[in-house]
Design brief:
The complex is a heterodimer of chains A (265) and B (398). With 265 residues, chain A is an alpha/beta fold. Helices cover 42% and strands 17% of the residues of chain A. The longest helix of chain A has 14 residues. The termini of chain A are far apart. Chain B has a five-stranded antiparallel sheet, with helices on both faces. Chain B has a five-stranded mixed sheet with strand order 7-9-10-12-11, with helices on one face. Chain B has a two-stranded antiparallel ribbon with strand order 6-8. The chains are: A alpha/beta (265), B alpha+beta (398).
Chain lengths: 265, 398
């Protein structure tokens, strides 16, 4: 069971502390994106890293299109992993879409989680009446087209590696070093599930202490969206970083670490 | 030869667009080809535009979530396809290669990017993508059709099996019918010719006493004839009746009933009849068949007892390989299996010059046993005795 789970989500565990910090990457990448952050917490926390099923080095065969047709499926995975590893009072650190995934998990099983740290969260990317998400459905279509056109070489070259990397070690090595490469079909499905989701109502159900880390300039989850999340989560704190981009934990790791440490004091 | 390459000129004329951006995306330098591709003046771009300003919203999502993290993690990224927006708003497809430049401490200083116009290639690529999509759809369709075909094949082979079974059934029936016809004609010929003779004698005779005697003989033959006919009809009934009803049969009870029926024969013959059904006391089985099987076997054993010794007849059940067996043993006349084994269970084959032999019993017993899916075998030695072993049916089917 545990072995299957570890393979399924490519679970990595670092350190031995009793306090647990559990990292979940966002759309388009994998657990590698936390490499600038984790060294600063590994002495005080047991670090748990995962790849969402369908991303990174997770077990692609476990990608059940029905289960993962909503973010709920990934939230259930996180709960299952916490239970299997006997984790308690977990401090979740989640980027982008995973902020909503951990919010769903914490609504479902509040006792598991002590604190949530959301980086660049957005409960809904598509604009709505009296809500600015930043995108229209047409933009999401365009994203899917971009995904398609950038997987031309991938599908034929990488597919056999995923299926059987014994035959062609040179491709396996390439995959080893290629970050943020996902099976195109899954990436496209996950993109739809992510960018067409609407979790605005779930924010109000969340009772866990939450920190929202927001880049001042973020083209994906704008400051306005960050403020919306803050307003709708009762026990939340918003920190706006002097940074640009959707991944401050990569582009401004020091500022991100500082915000996290201040919050966790 | 000495070539003096003018790097400034090279920078502006080398055959692709180039720009350099800060970590926050702001473009701080570009070559002339890039400006020409995008139709902007240098003043409009340098220090003012960012990489992402040339992208659509959908592409920005890709840039922020995939391109930027991948570049950050590997320091370089190649062959990413975007559609750059020109000053007038039209867009053209490009391939971008980017590389991050860091200082000695690992701090990112800036990013070099080169931009290839791939307008021609893109058209071709879109055609390829379209063909690939079509091929995928076709392949999916084929998979579906294949699946359907496989299901059809399965259905057909199932039907074929049923037909074969039916055919087998018909063949059996045919065999039985021809057997029946053969035996019937044989069985009926003797009494009928008997009757004819009796009739002639009756006609010719004038003595009233003789006539009465002859008539009683006729009556006897008619009775026998009737009996034979009924038995033949019964045997055919059994063979036609495949879907028999299974009752809860207790061997002791049925056997007691059999003993009752054969009470007089047992008394007359002084046979010692014993039984032990402990190993399998009961079975789900057609009760009428069980009664008939026990009756036939027991009356056979009594009938063909050895005249020079006390008849000992024993019935028992056994379970072997999950099957319930009924075993009947006697110490009677026995049968020469080498001589008669092959026609032992045929209709109206009798092996004993015995006044009561009618040759229907074993044929009927076998038919009944097989109708329920069982089988019967015989072990016998002349003047030693006979053992019938009957596999009634699989125990699981109880």
């Amino acid at each position: 069971m545990l072995e299957t789970l570890i393979k399924q989500n490519n679970v990595t565990i670092l350190g031995n502390s009793s306090k647990v910090m559990f990292f979940v990457h966002g759309y388009g990448c994998d657990q590698n994106m936390w490499r600038f952050i984790t060294p600063h917490f590994k002495d005080t926390y047991k670090i748990v890293l995962i790849d969402l099923v369908g991303c990174g080095k997770s077990d692609e065969n476990a990608y059940d299109y029905d289960k993962y047709n909503s973010l709920e499926g990934h939230a259930d995975d996180i709960i299952t992993i916490c239970d299997a590893l006997n984790l308690e009072d977990v401090c979740m650190v989640a980027h982008s879409v995973s902020a909503m995934i951990v919010a769903l998990a914490a609504v479902k099983r509040p006792a598991l989680f002590k604190k949530l740290i959301m980086i660049g969260p957005s409960p809904r990317y598509i604009n709505d009446v009296a809500y600015f998400g930043g995108f229209s459905e047409k933009d999401i279509e365009e994203l899917l087209e971009t995904l398609d056109s950038n997987y031309l070489g991938w599908s034929s070259a990488m597919a056999p590696v995923i299926m059987d990397n014994l035959d062609r070690p040179e491709l396996a090595a390439e995959l080893e070093t290629s970050f943020c490469q996902n099976n195109p079909e899954i990436a496209s499905h996950f993109a739809k599930v992510t960018f067409l989701a609407d979790n605005r109502n779930d924010l109000k159900k969340l009772a866990t202490d939450t920190l929202i880390i927001q880049s001042k300039k973020d083209a994906i989850a704008s400051l306005e969206v960050g403020q919306f999340v803050h307003k709708n989560i009762e026990n939340s704190k918003l920190v706006v970083l002097e940074s640009t981009g959707h991944c401050p934990h990569m582009s401004a790791p020091n500022k991100t670490i500082e915000a996290m440490k201040n919050y966790l004091l | 030869m000495d070539y003096n390459i003018d790097y400034k000129e090279f920078y502006d004329t080398f055959p692709s667009g180039y720009f350099c951006s800060l970590p926050n995306g702001t473009i701080i330098d570009s070559n002339k080809i890039f400006l020409k591709l995008t139709n902007y003046s240098r003043e409009e771009v340098i220090g003012k535009k960012k990489f992402t300003d040339f992208l659509s919203l959908g592409e920005k999502i890709y840039f922020e979530n995939v391109f930027a993290p991948a570049l950050k993690l590997s320091g370089t990224i190649e062959e990413v396809n975007f559609n750059f927006t020109k000053k007038e708003g039209t867009r053209f497809p490009v391939l971008v290669n980017s590389v991050e430049i860091k200082d000695l401490s690992g701090k990112q200083l800036y990013t070099h990017s080169i931009v290839f116009n791939i307008a021609q290639r893109k058209k071709y690529e879109q055609e390829l993508l379209k063909s690939k999509k079509n091929a995928n759809e076709l392949s999916n369709k084929l998979t579906t059709v294949n699946k359907e075909l496989r299901n059809h094949t399965k259905l057909i082979s199932k039907q074929k099996l049923q037909l074969e079974e039916f055919n087998q059934h018909l063949e059996n029936k045919n065999k039985q019918l021809s057997n029946f016809a053969h035996i019937a004609s044989h069985n009926l010929r003797a009494p009928v010719s008997n009757l004819t003779i009796l009739k002639d004698l009756y006609k010719e005779n004038t003595d009233a006493k003789d006539k009465a005697m002859l008539f009683s003989k006729v009556e006897m033959v008619i009775d026998r004839l009737n009996e034979t006919l009924n038995e033949l009809i019964d045997s055919i009934k059994i063979q036609g009746n495949k879907d028999v009803v299974h009752d809860a049969v207790i061997f002791d009870t049925v056997f007691a009933k059999t003993l009752e029926i054969l009470d007089i024969q047992i008394l007359d013959s002084k046979a010692v009849v014993t039984s032990n059904f402990c190993e399998a006391p009961n079975i789900a089985y057609p009760k009428l068949y069980m009664e008939s099987i026990l009756l036939n076997l027991l009356s056979n054993s009594i009938r063909y007892r050895a005249p020079d010794r006390v008849a000992q007849i024993h019935f028992r059940t056994e379970i072997i390989n999950n099957e319930i067996l009924l075993i009947a043993t006697d110490n009677g006349l026995g049968i020469d299996l080498k001589k008669y084994g092959h026609k032992l269970f045929g209709l109206n084959n009798t092996f004993h010059r015995h006044p009561d032999s009618k040759g229907v019993g074993l044929f009927m017993t076998k038919a009944q046993i097989e109708a329920v899916g069982g089988s019967i075998t015989i072990e016998s030695e002349v003047d030693k005795g006979t053992t019938f072993k009957i596999i009634l049916k699989k125990k699981n089917n109880d």
